[in-house]
Write a structure and sequence with these properties.
By secondary structure, the chain is mainly α. 75% of the residues lie in helices and 0% in strands. This is ABC-2 transporter permease.
Length: 218
């Protein structure tokens, strides 16, 4: 499986997608922006281009010629997705920390880049994964519909979460007010988001394996 992951990282993915997390992460320096968008760029740009590249390279047929199981093929691809997601998250979090240094006393209308917000971002990516990955592995070839559905789910979550953050004074206080400086609270939200991300991604992986085992590769 390690070789499959390295195959994707070294041969299957355009090096540009390893630079994009840093470039897009710098958008966290824009004051008062809707920061969910920074992470959503992964879903909007990286995923469709990456899977389009896999298809143009006939990666599925090439991989099936290797001495690997379908289980390993799915596991490796899910790991690659997670690695890229984490690159986007880590880069955005670093720039978010710089943002807080540059603007020590900001007023946010949308969620600010505090730890709790990153917990929400992990949940958003988890929703994308649990929709996109199983749908894609119905065929392991067609990615358009799966990408659209995954993006729709992630954007719906982000939109609802942000709307609640604006409408509810309690939620606003937790993420942008006094709660934003409560490290125990913020860390708890972040950890909860990470746990949800891991759980839903594991569910997505198991569902994808079951579906991929039924796919006849020609």
């Amino acid at each position: 499986m390690y070789n499959l992951v390295m195959k994707d990282l070294k041969l299957g993915i355009n090096p540009l997608f390893f630079i994009m997390p840093v470039v897009l992460g710098a958008l966290m320096l824009v004051p008062g922006w809707l920061y969910f968008i920074v992470i959503l760029y992964f879903c909007w740009i990286t995923v469709p281009n990456m899977f389009g590249q896999f298809r143009s390279q006939n990666d599925l047929m090439f991989t099936t010629m290797m001495p690997v199981t379908k289980n390993d093929m799915v596991k490796a691809r899910v790991l690659v997705i997670v690695i890229l997601e984490l690159l986007h998250m880590v880069a955005a979090m670093i720039f978010g920390a710089i943002h807080l240094r540059l603007y020590p006393d900001p007023t946010y209308y949308f969620f600010g880049p505090y730890l709790g917000f990153w917990g929400l971002c992990f949940v958003m990516l988890a929703i994308f994964n649990v929709i996109f990955i199983p749908m894609y592995y119905k065929t392991a070839y067609k990615y358009g519909g799966a990408t659209f559905a995954g993006v729709a789910g992630a954007m719906l979550f982000a939109g609802i979460a942000q709307w609640i953050g604006i409408q509810s004074s309690f939620v606003s206080d937790v993420f942008n007010g006094s709660g934003a400086h409560n490290m125990a609270l913020q860390t708890s939200i972040l950890i909860a988001g990470i746990v949800i991300f891991i759980a839903l991604t594991m569910i997505a992986y198991r569902m994808a394996v079951k579906r991929f085992l039924k796919v006849e590769i020609q």
